[in-house]
Structure prediction request, 91 residues.
Amino acid sequence: MMHTTVGWHVELEFVEDDQHTRAVAMVRLPDGTEVRAHGHASRHRVDSQQPRVGEEVAGARALNELAMQLLTKAHDEIDAASGRTSHPIHV
Prediction:
C-alpha cells in the first residue's frame, strides 16, 4: 500500500501584451529549495488575439523547463549519494 507523505504545489504566473506571453513556473520543494523556470510565446500579427492560447504555450514551455531542472537536480543528488556518475534520466 502506498502512502503519500508530501505534496508539491506548482505556481504559474503570466505577463502578457498584445503579441507576447511570458510565464514563470515555480515549485517549492519540501527541503525549502525553490526551482523556477520561464516560458515564452509570441502571437503572429495575423493571428487573432487569444490570450488563453498564449498562456497555454508559454505555461507548457515553463513547465517543460521546470521538469528538466528537476530531473537534473535528481540526477545530481543520485550522483552525490552514490559517488559515481549515473546514467542519464530520459523523459
About this structure: The mean pLDDT is 90.
